[in-house]
Amino acid sequence: MTRRAVIAGTGSALPKRRMSNAELAERVDTSDEWIVERTGIRFRHIAGEGETTATLGADAARTALDAAGIAPNAVGLIVLATATPDQTFPSTATKVQTALGIDDCVAFDVQAVCSGFLYALSVAESMIRAGSADVALVIGAETFSRILDWEDRTTCVLFGDGAGAVVLKAEDSEDRGVLSVSLHADGRHNSLLYVDGGPSTTGTVGKLRMKGQEVFRHAVVNLATVLGEALDRAGLSVADVDWVVPHQANRRILEATARKLGLPPEKVVVTVDLHANTSAASVPLALDVAVRDGRIRRGDLLVLEAMGGGFTWGAAAVRY
Ligand code: COA
User: Fold this and answer.
1) Among candidates 119, 157, 159, 194, which has minimal Cα distance to 15?
2) Which side of the chain, N or C, has fewer Cβ within a 10 Å radius?
């Protein structure tokens, strides 16, 4: 038996306001047809007054704890992935801790943009395996609407806000829980997807900038490779996979990656049509949707994967 981090519960949260492609077409020169054809996106949720990365993260965490039947004060570790924290500091993880009424735990943010959840999962599961925590909250939460250039049609149509969370619990098991994680980063590609501000450079928050086509090309290759790597490390193959839960950036990236791996498209969880790209929130958000609608069942083999700014990318094989 091996001490492993098992997913005890999942949760998610979305801002109240849902924005359609037609509404976007009133702001920038675009159309529902263009957005659906090139990306598969139909809707995204946009945070309103009082909704922040921390409030969304806390709501997702509460739902995940309820699903797990675990009280907030049993949580020993919160790792929150975000590129859009409420403030530069303190960490959004500590804000979620306070919102949940947790008296004392380890809490910090990680930042790997759209791969953030995979990085956070890796840190939390390593700490659980090492015995540093028995119960961990791993959260991906974002409000990208607040760093978008709403006049740039090449980026503002692609992103949305939201949060997803999983509760990880230590369990002695042969084959349940997080089985492997594979992570990468290559900073040579910083200039293809970035924010043009920051505390140490401009002193402003900045706006998201992206060379979409180049990101697309790297994404398919990197995602297919890392997914295979995570399976290899777990001693599994593509044929063992029940569900791929990918980062939801673009339907065409999801389809091209599945094709490259020889994975049937019906094994890929797709929520990009409803949520657009919610960066670090997208993997746990898609996971929670598929758990709650009954697609993902206990015992299923999942592969989670994501790629984002940096570039950073990663995948994890998980027996749910
Ligand atoms: N509405 C209408 N037209 C648009 C548009 C929009 N929202 N955005 C761009 N266009 C135009 C372009 O200006 C271009 O016009 P031109 O041919 O007259 O110059 C044309 O559409 C084609 O643009 P292009 O960039 O070649 O389109 P594309 O097929 O590559 O699709 C993306 C663009 C951004 C959807 C696509 O490249 C993509 O999804 N990339 C990956 C981005 C991503 O996932 N990033 C996050 C990773 S974490």
Assistant:
1) 159
2) N
- Does 1 score more than 90 pLDDT? no
CA 222/CA 227 separation, integer angstroms: 8
Ligand 1 atom closest to residue 153's alpha carbon, by position in its atom list: 7
What is the per-residue pLDDT across 212-253, written as a single tens digit (0 to 9) for each? Answer: 999 999 999 999 999 999 999 999 999 999 999 999 999 999
Q: State the span(s) of the chain assigned CATH 3.40.47.10.
A: 2-173, 177-319
Q: What is the pLDDT of residue 174?
A: 87
Tell me the one-letter amino acid at 137. Answer: L
CATH of 2-173, one of 3.20.20.70, 1.10.10.10, 3.40.47.10, 3.20.20.60: 3.40.47.10
C-beta of residue 257 within 8 angstroms of C-beta of residue 223: yes
CA 223 to centroid of chain Cα atoms: 14
Q: CB under 8 Å to 33, separation ≥6 — which residues?
A: none
Rounded Cα gap, residues 131 and 54, in angstroms: 27
Topology of domain 177-319 in CATH is Peroxisomal Thiolase; Chain A, domain 1 (3.40.47)
Q: What is the C-alpha to C-alpha distance for residues 257 and 270, in angstroms, rounded to an integer?
A: 13
Burial 239-268 (b: 16+ CB within 10 A, else e): eebebbbbbbbbbbbbebbbeebebeeeeb
Residue nearest to atom 42 of ligand 1 (CA): 212
β-pairing, 301-308 vs 243-246, is parallel
Cβ of 249 closer than 6 Å to ligand 1, yes or no, is yes
State how far the Cα of 111 lies from the Cα of 88, in Å rounded to an integer.
Answer: 12
* Assessment of whether the complete model's pTM goes beyond 0.90: yes
Bridge partners of 296, per DSSP, are: none
Report whether residue 222 contacts ligand 1, using a CB cutoff of 6 Å: no
- Report pLDDT digits (tens) over 6-19: 999 999 999 999 99
Q: In angstroms, rounded to a whole number, what is the distance separating the alpha carbons of residues 276 and 121?
A: 22
